[in-house]
Amino acid sequence: MSLDPHEAAALLAAARRERRTLPRFSDEHDGVDEAWGYDVQDLDRAARVAAGEWVVGAKLGLTSEAKQRTMHVHQPIVGFLTDAMAAPDLGGLVQPRVEPEVAFRLGADLDRALGRGEIASVLDGVAVALEVIDSRWTGYHFRLGDVLADNTSAAGFVVGEWRGVDLEGLANLAATFAVDGEVVSTTSPAAILGDPSEALVHLSRHLEARGETLPAGSVVLAGAMADAVPLTEGRRFEAVVEGLGSAVLSTL
Ligand code: OOG
């Protein structure tokens, strides 16, 4: 039996409101694939906008082979960000995790598929970020269609200070992710598709294929540089990229 995308979006929204997780749709329904997942995500976005949220950008997920292996989904995924996620109500989350990322700010509309060499021309800022993810799927057990329907687990984000864009050396800057001052991962922006510029290339193609655009001023989270860690109370999470700055999320 297939599941109507409207019904799926309503089930996900109710579970989010009630702080419940769900068994993945793909176990019980046919047709839970990429196109279906983005259809549900589009309905979710429309419902949130109708409820007064603003779309402030986009995020990429599963942008490293390591993360794709961990989550058993083998391609990058795209979700949307809203203003509510910029000040997330952490108490309303059910199985939150946090991961270190690189964020970009668009200085021009992203309205066509771009090659790598054109990326700098649409950016006006780059920063270190932390993303809070919270899956609707119990234990983060999902397939591609499920995670797309769930807006790629997007729940919140924190962006450090915006810096001028120098894409040349960005990929190989040294990065760390620390919890309570103790480094849990040593990494670099190269963990994101080999170079985080590729996340923008991927996003621009994704938008063009769907006939969508993202306006100047939007924030783009390029993807995780290291595995997510559980977001628990009484802790301080910090991502640092040398020469770029840091992003901090404290639950103290
Ligand atoms: C999917 C979203 C992961 C990333 O940067 O890889 C993500 C998940 O693992 O829940 O945002």
TrEMBL record:
<dbReference type="GO" id="GO:0005737">
    <property type="term" value="C:cytoplasm"/>
</dbReference>
<keyword id="KW-0456">Lyase</keyword>
<dbReference type="InterPro" id="IPR011234">
    <property type="entry name" value="Fumarylacetoacetase-like_C"/>
</dbReference>
<protein>
    <submittedName>
        <fullName>4-oxalocrotonate decarboxylase</fullName>
    </submittedName>
</protein>
<dbReference type="InterPro" id="IPR050772">
    <property type="entry name" value="Hydratase-Decarb/MhpD_sf"/>
</dbReference>
<dbReference type="GO" id="GO:0008684">
    <property type="term" value="F:2-oxopent-4-enoate hydratase activity"/>
</dbReference>
<dbReference type="Pfam" id="PF01557">
    <property type="entry name" value="FAA_hydrolase"/>
</dbReference>
<dbReference type="InterPro" id="IPR036663">
    <property type="entry name" value="Fumarylacetoacetase_C_sf"/>
</dbReference>
<feature type="domain" description="Fumarylacetoacetase-like C-terminal">
    <location>
        <begin position="86"/>
        <end position="246"/>
    </location>
</feature>
